[in-house]
Design goal:
It is built from eight helices and seven strands. With 206 residues, it is α/β, with parallel strands linked by helices. Bound molecules: S-adenosylmethionine.
């Protein structure tokens, strides 16, 4: 099982030809606290580029739940990282995944999801789930490729992030990644954006 083979099987779901490199992983996971007992959720871990640095930062404390749609990736991840609770599930059902585990609040969500490949309703649904589970003091991180940064799906994602979080910080460009990428670090989720109903329309729809 290789990342590239899984890309060939399902290019739109995997969304990248190569896994993220170490430099990008360090930036994307920097918000995971190295102290306390944080609950960390990882979305779309793939072959585990972000999983290892998250585990290193947790150093045996807290909880690390990984949500991966592809069962081959998930099986491999569970074998390589026995301390990680791997759910074979859609990130759009994050609340359900966490409810099954009696987890109601998450400190950090690290996403490796291929946002550019998601249709707008899917993007909106997944972000609603993230905002719904994040602690008010929690952090959400995700990344975008620099070459696609000005393309409509990436612009839509950034607009959605800005409408759902009070603060969105864009990292420096990680040139060492192939392809170069940057990380969005989002803080202070806006609570009404997680609710179902008419108000949802104003959250991340533009
Ligand atoms: C671009 S790869 C990133 C993998 C890894 N995080 C990295 O950076 O190398 C996207 C990953 O998201 C997973 N994925 C795609 N859609 C998903 C969904 N709706 N729910 C959970 N995982 C999903 C894919 O199977 C793949 O493992």
């Amino acid at each position: 099982m290789s990342f590239f083979r899984e890309f060939l099987r399902a290019p739109l779901t995997v969304g990248a030809v190569l896994p993220s490199g170490r430099a990008l992983a360090e930036v994307a996971t920097a918000a995971v606290p190295g102290t306390g007992s944080p609950v960390v959720v990882e979305l779309g871990p793939g072959t585990g580029a972000f999983t290892a640095p998250i585990q290193r930062r947790l150093a045996g404390s807290g909880r690390h739940i990984a949500v991966e749609l592809n069962s081959r990736f998930a099986d491999r991840l569970a074998m390589l990282h026995p301390a990680v609770d791997v759910a074979v599930a859609d990130a759009a059902s994050l609340r359900e995944v966490l409810a099954q585990r009696d987890v109601s609040r998450v400190d950090v969500v690290v996403s490796g999801l291929p946002w550019a490949a998601f249709e707008e309703p899917v993007q909106r649904e997944v972000l609603s789930e993230v905002v719904a589970v994040l602690d008010p003091g929690g952090v959400f991180t995700t990344f975008a490729y620099v070459h696609a940064r000005w393309a409509p799906p990436a612009q839509r994602l950034l607009r959605s992030l800005r409408s759902r979080f009070e603060e969105v910080v864009i990292s420096r460009t990680v040139w060492a990644n192939v392809p170069p990428a940057l990380v969005y670090l989002c803080r202070r989720p806006i609570p009404h954006c997680s609710r179902q109903g008419p108000k949802l329309m104003s959250c991340g729809s533009g």
